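Subgroup meeting minutes
Present: P.N., E.W., G.H.
Scribe: E.W.

1. P.N. recapped why we're keeping a running log of single-chain structure predictions: easier to compare across weeks, and new members can see raw inputs and outputs side by side.
2. G.H. added today's entry (194 aa).
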Amino acid sequence: MRKVIWIVIAVAAFTIVLAAGPAAAGPVVDPSTLQPEPPTGAVCRANGPWTICQTTFLVDVVNEPVVFLDLPCGTVYETIVDLREGIRWYLDGKLVKRFVRQNAEGAWSLSPTGAGPTVKISLHVSWRDEYAVPGDESSALTTFHGSGFTVSAPGVGVLAHIAGLERPDSPHRGVFWIIDDEESAAKLCSALTA
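Output recorded in log:
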């Protein structure tokens, strides 16, 4: 019986906390009043002198050609689910900083239908923008952190990898290994034609 009473108390306390959450948040702010306007679907609320917007951006690509990659074995097609969740801070209606977390998983293939051998692609990175001129996106000073891009294949291992820390005032620290020469292109082609 005591266990049931504690469960009821815990559920009641949790319900009170959940109910208080939206009431404790500041009033909703119309995103169209902000500069620059956040993406469609952003939820913006006043928080003292700040307006804070929560954003979600989802890209779901199926068998699209990868235009930046020219391989001797053919056109590479990408299928990927790319989710980006962000927070934007506005002061006096102007964007002053932004934080984005990106998680993406997918595959590359030489087939426009995605059939045949594939390699895995993934991105697990976050970045922070601080704006030298509030409201001016072109003035962003960006810091990247995490695993920005990885290409791998079973039995072959990692074929490309960009990871580490990159600040606006210093060079990239970490791994920066891309498919930019004949040898790495040949390894990727071998994985895609095996």
